[in-house]
Structure formats: C-alpha cells, structure tokens
Design a protein that fits this description.
With about 250 residues, this protein is of the alpha/beta class. It folds into two domains: about 130 residues, 3-Layer(aba) Sandwich (Rossmann fold); about 110 residues, OB fold (Dihydrolipoamide Acetyltransferase, E2P). It is built from seven helices and 17 strands. A five-stranded parallel beta sheet has the order 2-1-3-6-7, with helices on both faces. The chain starts with a strand and ends with a helix.
Length: about 250
C-alpha cells in the first residue's frame, strides 16, 4: 500500500513514518510533503492508495485538498491527523470520516488502517466534513439524506426525533428528512447551539420554538405548529432554565 504524508511539521511526519514502519509495515511511504500544494503535486505524480493529511497547516486547511481534484480523480483514501478541539472531533464522527488524534497512538493507527482497507471514505462524507467544520456554531449543517447531502438551516429546525440508527429532522415548514445518523450524533453537533436541547431519549428540540410546558402526564413541551414532545423528568430543571434564558 503506497502512502503520502502531508504535514507542515517535520517531527510529525517523521514520527508517523516510524510508527508505520513498526506497526503497519504493509504501508510504504512514497513521499512526505510539508504543505498542501506540494502534496497535491505528489498525489498527481505518485498516485498513492492512501494520504495522511494534517488539517491545520499554514496557508491551507487540509480540507482544501478536495478543491484541487475533480470527483473522478479522488481514487485514494484519506486519514486525517488532527490536534483539533472537541467540536472538530465530533464533526469527524458525524461525517463518518477516519481521523487520528495527535500525538498518534499506535493502536489507533493500526485500527484506522484496518478500517480503511475495509471501506474507503466516500467523497460525499468528505464534503460533509468540510461543511460541518466551517462553523463551530453549526448554524447550517450538512447531513446525509439518501444518496445526497442536504444543507439544513438549524434555525428552521423544529425538532429531531431519534429512530434507532436514524433520525427524523422535522422543520418549521412541515418538511421531514430521514437522516442516517443516530440522535447522539446530532446531539454532539447541534446542541453546541444553546437553542437546542435533548429533552428526551428520543427528541432534540429547538427551544426557540417552545410555546409552553405542561407538567401533566410526565411533562410535555408544546411546540409551534401544535406538535407535542415528551420530556424526561431528569431534564425538567434544565428545560425551564433554557426557556427562561431564551425569553430574556
């Protein structure tokens, strides 16, 4: 398996190469590049099977790699290396993209290589990651819906209902989207916005759309448009606090 490392830090490149040599001898490093333009040239020339790509580099984000290639040219897998913050890690998970957190753990490196052998990252997932990394406030999120990616304005979301490994996103205009991500994936991304709260094991609600709270029958939130959503008893204090905060 032929691979290229793109990372602006020489120490990081050397460390990764040594780890691969010891723990993943089937991976041959054919080039080390210190910036994105150099990496693009090496990919075009050497046609690797795998690219280890740093996210944050001077002048270019690693995610800009997609801008240099047509869709039919991306016939290599990408494993991202990052020292990024918590939001970025959640964005990777939501987009189903493999990453290695610096400093790189040998066991995680081996696992990432094994996963890569079984299933290459889809181009759509890479595009989704790029969009979801663009805003830590997640005012607009990119989500997989069938065989396409759709972009949802979070201010127009009424609530999200979890249904096993899928979630149904219900919007203010009545449209609904069935998304192949579970509710925990959505919670990690969208609840960074203080207007959203997971109020029940099966529901995330846009708190700006709450009309009233009923204490009977275990607790219910009445939303705009006449939709009622159950709430968990453990969430009641937090819900009332959120309502008071938004109303100020």
């Amino acid at each position: 398996m032929r691979a290229i490392i793109i990372d602006d830090e020489k120490r990081a490149r050397v460390t990764l190469q040594l780890l691969l040599k010891e723990y993943c001898p089937e991976v041959e490093i054919v080039a080390q590049c210190e910036n994105l333009p150099e990496g693009v040239k090496s990919i075009r020339k050497l046609k690797p099977d795998l690219v280890f790509l740093d996210i944050e580099m001077p002048g270019h984000s690693g995610l800009e790699l997609l801008d240099f290639f047509d869709e039919n040219e991306i016939n290599f897998s990408i494993i991202f290396a990052t020292a990024y913050n918590e939001y970025a890690i959640k964005a990777f998970k939501f987009s189903a993209i493999d990453y290695l957190l610096k400093p790189i753990n040998p066991e995680e490196l081996v696992s990432a290589i094994e996963r890569m052998k079984k299933q290459n990252a889809k181009l759509e997932n890479l595009k989704m990651l790029k969009e979801n990394m663009a805003s830590t406030k997640a005012k607009k999120i990119a989500v997989p819906c069938g065989n396409k990616i759709i972009f949802l304005d979070t201010t127009k979301i009424l609530y999200i209902k979890g249904e096993g490994s899928y979630s149904e996103v219900c919007c203010l205009d009545g449209t609904k989207h069935l998304i192949s991500r579970n509710l925990k994936n959505f919670e990690d991304i969208i609840c960074l916005d203080e207007n959203f709260l997971r109020v029940h094991r099966s529901y995330i609600v846009n708190m700006e759309q709450v009309v009233s709270y009923q204490k009977t029958d275990g607790g219910t939130l009445n939303l705009e448009g006449g939709k009622d959503v159950p709430v968990s008893s453990s969430k009641i204090d937090l819900i009332l606090e959120k309502i008071n905060l938004i109303q100020r």
